[in-house]
Amino acid sequence: MKQVNIGICGLGTVGSGTFNVLTRNLEQIQSRIGGSINIKQIGARRDNPACDLSTVEVTRDIFDVVKNPEIDIVVELIGGTTVAKDLVLQAIANGKHVVTANKALIAEFGNEIFAKAKDKGVTIAYEAAVAGGIPIIKALREGLAGNRINWLAGIINGTGNFILTEMGDKKRDFADVLKEAQEKGYAEADPTFDVEGIDAAHKLVILASLAFAMPLQYDKVFTEGISGIETKDIDNADRLGYRIKHIGIARRVDNSVELRVHPTLIPKKRVIANVDGVMNAVLVNGDAVGPTLYYGPGAGAEPTASSVIADIVDVARHIHSGANTAIPSLGFDALSDKDIMDINDIETSYYLRLVVDDKPGVLSQLTTALSDASIGIEAAHQEEPAEGETNAEIVLLTDKSAESNLLSALAKIEKLECVQGDVKKIRVESLG
Ligand code: HSE
To answer: Is 384 exposed, middle or buried (0-12, 13-18, 19+ CB in 10 A)?
Structure first.
């Protein structure tokens, strides 16, 4: 029986995890495949002390791997969208199947890559690109294949979730927690990708295409990061019965789709509101199944390797079966464009925090400005000013409103003489 040869490109956090888990569990993995596999070659600029490479051929030029006629599956774990894109396109051109953990590459160039792979009859598998060790791609593509997906919402960046959790639980400083996430290998090479929501947007766009049979449209995702969240917002939310999470939401609204990543207040009673640390979770609501929740580690060497190896198993089984068709990249035969909604047209509730003069009549000016825009108030809280202070901080929770409507009301509120500075706004979702 043919042996399936694997070439791993990149030996960083995920590459070393993949090598070690594949080596450790090889017997069981081969039994699952029903055939043998072999790590034939590794392309890495330097060795990784976490791996014993004594039995494998290592090349410093990763392109040797895609040129090697003996390699069947190229495992791209170098990250980025420049060299990685060339590598993947060359692998496809050379007739190799590709397994990748590269969410940026799939989100930004997936349409082109998938089309080229389809023409060539090779598979592009990317389970590890979204939510680390959670098999969410397979859940959407296979487990929920009978459903019309209504919406999904996820905590899909481990670093951001780790930061918000530590800030809330231990009152730690943002920069200090971020440094720890970098040391633990959770954060991206450029950690602004984590804290500004770019990494989550990459993942969300992949999930949305799998859910709604549409081409990847990364440039249309609305993205807001967590760098503006302060410990006092986390405490205020807690007092009102909510937790703040950085959430990616993809929802069908008639013939359009919402695609947005932003900090969000979620009722504490929702399970997803209690997903802490580096853990990720994705809620998927299908018309047949109803709400389903997928939970697990969203980053780290071996959790991500778990997903990389699941793809290797799929592709190797496919090769061993002798099938001469590729596994469809997004699980649909045909995709159709959908309009992506402008953030101004999206309806949510809002948490508002503002500083006002501590004098009678202020609250009524605020409620009037909101009610003039037909925005109701669900809850209000005022912090007593400190001794000698003349300003007070007010927190409001509003009913649902279109974002454009809320923004015009806020513009009026910020012009009121009793209001000091800008109003802090965080969206609120019930996710029920
Ligand atoms: N930087 C990413 C995260 C790694 O923190 O979730 C996994 O994609």
So the answer is: exposed
Which of 126, 127, 159, 306, when mutated, tests ligand 1's pocket best, judged by the most ligand atoms within 8 Å of its CB? 159
Q: Residue 383's pLDDT is what?
A: 80
Give yes or no for a contact between 252 and 151, defined as CB atoms under 8 angstroms apart: yes
Query: What pLDDT sits at residue 1?
Result: 67
- In the predicted structure, residue 385 carries a pLDDT above the cut 80: no
9 C-alpha to ligand 1 centroid (Å): 19
Which residues are catalytic, by number?
Answer: 203
- Atom index in ligand 1 nearest the CA of residue 181 equals 5
Q: What is the mean pLDDT of the chain?
A: 96
8-state DSSP, 141? I
Q: Please classify residue 69 by burial: count the beta carbons closer than 10 Å to its beta carbon, then call 0-12 exposed, 13-18 middle and 19+ buried.
A: exposed
| Structural contact between residues 382 and 394, judged by C-beta atoms closer than 8 angstroms | yes
- Give the nearest ligand 1 atom to 157 CA: 6
